[in-house]
Structure formats: C-alpha cells, structure tokens
Amino acid sequence: MKTLGCFKYSRLLIIFLAITFLLCIITLNTASCAEVEMKGGYHMMVGDFKIITLSDGINQRPVEQHLQLLQGNKEKMKDVLERFYPSGQIEGTVNAFLIDTGSKLVLIDTGNGKMVSPTIGKVIDNLRAAGYQPEQVDEIYLTHMHGDHVGGLVSGKERVFVNATVYANKHEANYWLDDSNQNAAPEATKRTFQAAKDTITPYITAGKFKTFEGNIQVTPGIRAQGLFGHTPGHTAYVIESKGDTLVLWGDIIHVAAVQFEDPLITIAYDSDKEEAAKVRQQILAEVVKNNWLIGGAHIVFPGIGHVQANDGEYNFVPLKFPASK
Ligand SMILES: [Zn+2]
Asked: How far apart (Å, rounded) are the C-alpha atoms in residues 249 and 279?
C-alpha cells in the first residue's frame, strides 16, 4: 500500500532525527557529537575506503513551488509533502562525497559553489573542516553537470582544486559543453549550460579534464555506472572494497518523500523524463537485490542508507547517526 510506504519512511526519518537530536543533547560537550561536527561531515568506512559525506547546505522551497516541478499525481504528492514538511517548506539537501582510498583522494561532485545562496556552497568549508585541503584532491568524478554538482569546482574563474583532474561521462560533456545545444535551449536552461562551461573550462584549459565512455573502472575500487536520463550522461560511482559496496547515485532521487514510494514521479530538471523514471526503477531494484548501500546528493544528510522494497514501492532506511568510527 502506497500510504503505508510513506508512513514507514516518515516514521523512520522521525525516529532517526529524534535519536540524532537526543544524542546531541546528551553528548553536547563530549566527543561523539562535537567530533562529527568538527570533522566537517559524516565519516564511515566502506571496506578499506574512508567515505565522508560533505554537506553543501540546504535550500528551502515552498511545497507549492516544488509541486510545480514534479510530474505525477499532484493531489497525492501534495498530501504526502504537507505531512512530511509541516512547515510548508521543503528542505532541499545537497551532498558531495569525499573518498580517501588510502592512495588517492577522490571527490564525487562539488556542490553549488559560493555564488548561489548564503545557505549553500559549503562543500569546500566542510572539506577543510574534515581535515583535508582542496589542493590534496587528486580526482573529481562528476555525476552530471548541473550547477549544484559542478558549482564548487571554481571560485570566480579560478580552479579550486588546483591539482585535481575532473572526470565526467563523455555524453555529459558533449551535451553541456556544446554551443549549439546551449543556443537551442530555453532561456532558463541556457544558464545551466553556462554554469557547466564556466566551471569546466578552467580545468580543460589546464589539461585537467577527461571524459570516459561506458561503465569503466575509473580507479581501482570505483567504477562508473551510466544511469542516463536525468541528464544525457548522468553517472553513478560504485565504491567496492573488501566485499562492501556503496552506490553514489547522484540525482536518482530528488524528493525522497515521494520518489521512493513512487519511482515514476519525475522532476522538471530531468532531460529525458521517461528514461529517468526507467533508470530509477532499474537501479532501485538492483540495490535492493544486492543489499548495497546508496548515497544520494539530495537525500537528507548524510544521504547514505539502504533501500527496502515493498510491492513495487521502496523505503529508504538511513544509516544511524553519528557513524561509528
Ligand atoms: Zn542535483
């Protein structure tokens, strides 16, 4: 039953938030709460790899406005969202993920950068708070080239990650960096093309941008998996170490409160809505079948958890917080 799925998800989230809140109250001046905060993100291990979710911050948007972006049963979505967000404001989370493989420092996406709003653009600050410097990042793997994923690559026209090589799927680069596609796009989308160009070009000029094709191993323990639809080259990165797996799936889910329950719900930002919905169903089924952990760019911080299936609907089960170290 669809309503049951949502209640389950809501209840889990409420329990998760309550536990988090209580832990922070109980341990306010002790190590666990303070350390999580001071370390700039959510730290966990996947096999031998250290994974840190870096929050870029939160963007608030009224439920009504968000509903206009979603395609699906509007009445039902309105009902779910109003119960889920009693304040009437949807809190849009943005996460990036830092991976310390032991021999290499890899960043999956970079957040919005500083220019968008004062409440977001915090990936770099959180990376520093986690004990790393942008110059230490060796490679950046982009899930796609929307502004909330590439914005942090630059500060003005300068590269933030001066020693990093940026990687993206070839279809993604060919689409967003193409002048004729930009010229043919609606006015609002032209800005997305421009953001992709402004953030990627300094890396191209420096010889620090590379594309790949197919589901390749981008580095030992991290493979790319094309999940095209949201954008033409939208890609997940699958972290595999010592039998543990974490699928960092970018924008497979935008509004968790409704899209886990009904994966057919699409959003205005999808380049190909039909394909985006199809691919969402496929990857949801795949992670459930394999009991893989997932990490989402727009799932409430730290955005990592398991997915459960229930009669064609899905529930998200977040990892407990703070993480064990
Ligand atoms: Zn996004």
From this structure: 11
